[in-house]
Amino acid sequence: MPSQYVIGVDIGTQSTKAALFDASGLCLATAARKSFLYQPGPGIVEENPERQVAAVCKTIRQCVRSAGVPVDAVAAIGIDGQMAGIIGVGRDGRAITPYDSWLDTRCEPYIGKMKAANEEIISKTGGPPSFNHGPKILRWKKEYPRIYRSIHAFVQPGGYAAMRFCGLDGDAAFIDRTYLHFSGFADNRRGCWDEELCRRFGVSPEKLPRIVEPHAIMGSLCAAMARRCGLHAGVPVVAGCGDTAASFLACGATREGVCVDVAGTASVFAATTEKFLPDRKRQVLSCGSSATPGLWHPYAYINGGGMNVEWFRGIIAAAGDGVSSKLSFKEFERLAAKVPLVESLPLFIPHLAGRVSPSWPRLRGAWAGLALQHGLGHLYRAVLEAVALEYGFYKKVLQELRPSLAFREVRRTGGGAGSTLWNQIKADVLGVKIVPVTRDEGAPLGAALLAAYGVGLVPDLVCAADAWIQTCKGISPVEKHAATYAVRQARYERLLVALNVWSCENATN
Predict the structure, then answer these.
(1) pLDDT tens across 34-66, in order?
(2) Which residue in 375, 325, 318 sits closest to 346, CA to CA?
(3) Which residues are CB-neighbours of 214 under 8 A, at least 6 positions away?
(4) What is the pLDDT of residue 508?
(5) In which band, very low, low, confident or very high, does the pLDDT at 266 lie, cut at 50, 70 and 90?
(6) How far is residue 361's CA from residue 378's CA, in Å, rounded to a whole number?
(7) DSSP string, 345-407
(8) Are 404 and 273 in contact (CB under 8 A)?
(9) How far apart are CA 460 and CA 453, in angstroms?
(10) H-only helix segments in 144-200
């Protein structure tokens, strides 16, 4: 039987998800396993890399069993994963360190050290130093020198799982180009490590993995891992890409002007361009290589932005009268939808875990403008609106970088994509039509597309994305809301600046 199925896996922050597709893009099975984050103290967020690998194996096995497809008909596996964190691997290719998560903020002092070369780093990598690879690597080098000396290379969860699947050693460690804007040490346009940046911060290029294409075949499934996955040995494993890049591909962001809103754990706003656009001046946007050859994604995100909704319902509302704690998200949305749009509504700052875009690590969340007449609906609407206002700021920066860029539409995906109110608020703030993607597989769909393209099951990645991805009727901006949101946008941005000054002064004193 010819191989005709592909499996895409996403190693996410909250869970690992897998999906099995046929060559036409029909999803035959999905599976998920909850992540096990280790958070013993402030700023610490780690995970066991082998638990991540085990979750990948279990979800693949479950998909194969649920779909009932012949195991010898699986053509390829693609794995995407969290992008900004790192895992140190030894010469044997096994993890020496825990997964140092993108939510872990202990590298903050080293962000400051790298900011001395901010403009050069942004110009070359496409992104500023933040809670990502460069500062994290420097933390391991400075604070754990013995462990650092034994690390052969630093990789990400998706790459590590692929290495384990193929039995690769440390010399074969890899990173694909969609991660390079988080690296701190790459020449992104050329797709190589930058010797000057490495020398400046004392990081040997030998500790950095080889750079590959997202659809490159890295090896084949070894016998031991095949048994754990319920597959035959020898299935090709492609490099895959970062989870955000996979989500962009899964939305069909394969042409210039198509924007994406990923309403997940991290709230991400991105555009698609044909040019590399490093944000040297504002230092807000990162410009990452697209999984689609020849394209780029300038984007920014809120650290844990999608978690704010869960936080509100689980902690703030539950601390009320006992009735509010029983309200569903839809009921909260109904309360918020009843609140009329006026300039004086309260504002919410969504950066409970620090601001990433730009890097303001000491800024934290806040409400402003609360009055006695404000209730749960006002508060919940402010939480939703804050993400839209942050996106409005990102769009303004993007327009400064590329004034001629035409925004075709914003494709929305992720857990919050079904919220009609949230979609309308975003459309009004951005002045762009929001088009929800009806497929709910998310990043695993993007990883599966790369797997299919890598082994030639689909001959053209863009055409395959067009065929696989479906959207529903979009939500257009309400013209009469534009003036009100222009005022609220300006107030929001001024509030951000004032609170960041206060946060820095408070931390210093």
Answers:
(1) 999 999 999 999 999 999 999 999 999 999 999
(2) 375
(3) 176, 177, 178, 238, 239, 240, 241, 245, 291, 450
(4) 56
(5) confident
(6) 27
(7) S-EEE--TT-BTTTTBTT---EEES--TT--HHHHHHHHHHHHHHHHHHHHHHHHHH-TT---
(8) no
(9) 7
(10) 145-150, 157-166, 195-200
pLDDT in tens, 182-231: 999 999 999 999 999 999 999 999 999 999 999 999 999 999 999 999 99
Tell whether the model's pLDDT for residue 321 goes beyond 70.
no
Q: Taking Cα atoms as reference points, which of 446, 452, 490, 489 lies closest to residue 469?
A: 446
Is the pLDDT at 323 greater than 70? The verdict is: no
**Cβ atoms of residues 79 and 445 within 8 Å:** no
Q: Where in the chain is the domain with CATH 3.30.420.40?
A: 5-252+437-468, 307-436+478-508
Residue pair 46/66 in contact (Cβ under 8 Å)? The answer is: no
To 5 degrees, how large is the angle CA 495–CA 500–CA 501?
A: 100
Cα distances (Å, whole numbers) of residue 194 to 19, 38, 83, 182, 206 = 36, 33, 20, 14, 12
Q: Rounded distance, CA 120 to CA 136, Å?
A: 18
Between 327 and 106, the higher pLDDT residue? 106
**What number of other Cβ atoms are within 10 A of residue 342's Cβ?**
9
* Ramachandran class of 405: left when φ > 0, alpha when ψ lies in -120 to 50, beta otherwise: beta
Q: What average pLDDT does range 357-368 have in this prediction? A: 90
Class of domain 5-252+437-468: alpha beta
Q: Do 398 and 405 form a contact (C-beta atoms < 8 A)?
A: yes
Do 237 and 224 contact (CB within 8 A), yes or no?
A: no
Tell me if the bond preceding 358 is cis, omega within 30° of 0: yes
Supply the angle between the helices 329-337 and 420-430 in degrees, to the nearest 10.
50
On whether the CB atoms of residues 193 and 208 are closer than 8 A, the answer is yes
Q: Which residues contact 378 (CB under 8 A, 6 or more apart)?
A: 336, 339, 345, 346
Q: What is the 3-state secondary structure (H, E, C) of 201-216?
A: CCCCHHHCCEEECCCC
Backbone torsion region of residue 270, taken as left when φ is above 0, otherwise alpha when ψ lies between -120 and 50, otherwise beta = beta
Question: Which tens digits make up the pLDDT trace of 17-27?
Answer: 999 999 999 99
How far from the centroid of its chain's Cα atoms is residue 417's Cα? 15
CATH code: domain 307-436+478-508 is 3.30.420.40
pLDDT category, 148, cuts 50, 70, 90? very high
Query: Residue 322: pLDDT above 70?
Result: no
Gap between the Cα atoms of 253 and 178, Å rounded: 14
pLDDT at position 317 over 70: no
Per-residue pLDDT tens over the stretch 432-449: 999 988 888 989 999 999
Residues in the chain: 509
Dihedral angle, C-alpha 105, 109, 115, 121, nearest 10 °: -60
Residues in CB range of 412: below 8 A, 6 or more apart: 251, 260, 261, 263, 423, 426, 434, 435, 436, 437
Residue 330 has pLDDT above 80, yes or no: yes
